[in-house]
Amino acid sequence: MDGIVLLIEDEEEIAELLRLVFEKEGFRLLHADSGEKGLDILTQRAPRAVLLDLGLPGMDGTEVCRRIRAKSNVPIIMLTARDDEVDTVVGLEIGADDYVTKPFSPREVVARVKAVLRRAEQVPAPPAAITVADFEIDSGRRQVRTPSGDIVEPTAREFDLLWHLAHNRGIVLSRSQLLEAVWGYDYFGESRTVDVHVRQLRKKLEGIPIETVWGVGYKLGGRAEH
Predict the structure, then answer these.
(1) Is 36's pLDDT higher than 60?
(2) Helix (H) or strand (E) segment spanning residue 221
(3) Distance (Å, whole) CA 54 – CA 196
(4) 12 and 114 belong to one structural domain
(5) What would the mean pLDDT of 7-18 be, rounded to a whole number?
(6) Do 106 and 204 belong together in one domain?
(7) What CATH number is given to the structural domain containing 96?
(8) What is the mean pLDDT of residues 130-149?
């Protein structure tokens, strides 16, 4: 697995460290030290993934993420030194695929990139729909019709999580199982990624029967129909 990865990060030491590790894995890492430069590179080149620092000077990472998502579906992994849930939620809500909190292991970052690339390049399954507790989950349109008839379009990762829970309805799935199935990597300790996505699904789909099983994980309850 190789190709171009775009790193938008203002700390040169981090950039150089990641460059060495990614090149060893066969990737070419392009580095931009500001959001503006990163967006310019994105229009000129075709990176397979973007590593985006939230704490950029000038245009911050959330604004860069919004602008990338306005024109591209390239996988985005956020890098943040702020263990701030608000920043994390905002980034995931506007379309980032994953996040890593600094300090991090460079090899972990490579593993995350490989995982999002595997997910992005999978051949999609034939469209289908599952109805759970009067929520119609449509994989073809990647949207959900609520019991009141409203159409909700979760983010890509939120939908993938909901679809996996729906296919395993009634089964308790641990956070590590969900990370591996939906995000595509072995459990690295960032279980909050799952919690944030579940919380956003509950917020967007009021009444969706995603149940917390304390000390284990989550399950989707409710009667289901194909």
Answers:
(1) yes
(2) none
(3) 17
(4) yes
(5) 95
(6) no
(7) 3.40.50.2300
(8) 92
Residue 87 to residue 54: CA distance in whole angstroms: 8
What is the SS3 assignment for 78?
strand
- Whole-number Cα distances in Å, 103 to 106, 109, 121, 178, 215: 9, 11, 29, 24, 26
Q: What is the pLDDT of residues 99-110, one digit of tens each?
A: 888 888 899 899
Query: Does 1 have pLDDT greater than 70?
Result: no
The whole-angstrom separation of Cα 2 and Cα 27 is: 5
State the Cα angle at 127 between 195 and 224, rounded to 5°. Answer: 60
Query: What contacts 100, CB < 8 A, 6 or more positions away?
Result: 77, 78, 79, 80, 108, 109, 112, 190
User: Residue 189: pLDDT band by 50, 70, 90 thresholds?
Assistant: very low
Q: What is the mean pLDDT of residues 4-12?
A: 95
Dihedral pair phi/psi, residue 117, rounded to 5°: -70, -40
Q: Given this model, what pLDDT does residue 125 score?
A: 62
Sheet containing strand 224-225, strands side by side: 151-152, 143-145, 135-138, 129-132, 224-225
Give the whole-angstrom CA distance, residue 38 versus residue 7: 8
State whether 153 and 196 are in the same domain: yes
